[in-house]
Amino acid sequence: KLTLLPLLREETSSFIFPCYPAVQRPELQYMVMELLRCIPLLLFLLFVCGLDHFIFSILSIIQHHSFVQYSYQTSHHLSVNVMGTSLMAQLLRGTIGALNTSFDTEVETSNLACLPQPSGMTRQQYLDTFLPLGTLALLCLLQVYPFRLRRAIAAFYFPKREKTRVLFLYNKLLRQRKNFLYLQRGRLARQARQPPGLGMSLVQWCRRRWPWMRRCLRRRCTLCGTPETPRHRPCPDPNCGALYCEQCW
């Protein structure tokens, strides 16, 4: 009977193994989509912080280069002297003499109260602004691990449904395995009809010319591309020369 295990290398990339610590290919696509949704928020925060810094720079320039200080000094002295001893002279000294004044004025003022007093954001404030976005991005990276528990939770509460799902997955893998072998045979047949490229011909010539270079110029599996190991098996047809790993063979 056709067995499914162990899975082929191309088949393992389409499944999620719960105990595998690294992020796998099906999870990577969903994780990248979640991270892309954070980009508009990041651009918005960068625009707001850049606009804040730009306005702060303009107000700082106005504050430092628009300061004007005024200093006003004036002196006023009025003295009316009426000469004579007559009655009219005495009357004029009593009336006009009251106009005699003397005062000095000194005024200093500036437009400091009208100038803006900007205060820029500190490094801690910038950090507090971007900290929620960084937390959101971190959750996008870590959410793949709690999502792996969804199947186990569903299997615990719905065991019959889980049995149906496993049977469906088994039949689906059988169909994919049959189609996979058919497609790979066709791909290898088309590849065999094509003449070898210049690079491949040069590698084969170097391997035949200098046997010690076989360790450096190792061939790869025709299907999955894994480097050559002692377990790799060549095609029994002497005119083929294709190499396969143990799993693909």
TrEMBL record:
Keyword Lipoprotein recorded: no
Residue ranges constituting the E3 ubiquitin-protein ligase DCST1-like C-terminal domain according to the UniProt record: 219-249
One Pfam assignment: zf-RING_DCST1_C
Domain Dendritic cell-specific transmembrane protein-like: 2-170
Leader peptide range in chain numbering: none
Protein name: DCST1 ligase
Family annotation (InterPro entries): CSR-E3_Ligase_Protein, DC_STAMP-like, DCST1_C
Record flagged with keyword Transmembrane helix: yes
Recorded GO CC terms: membrane
Tree of life domain: Eukaryota
GO molecular function terms attached to this record: ligase activity
Main localization category: membrane
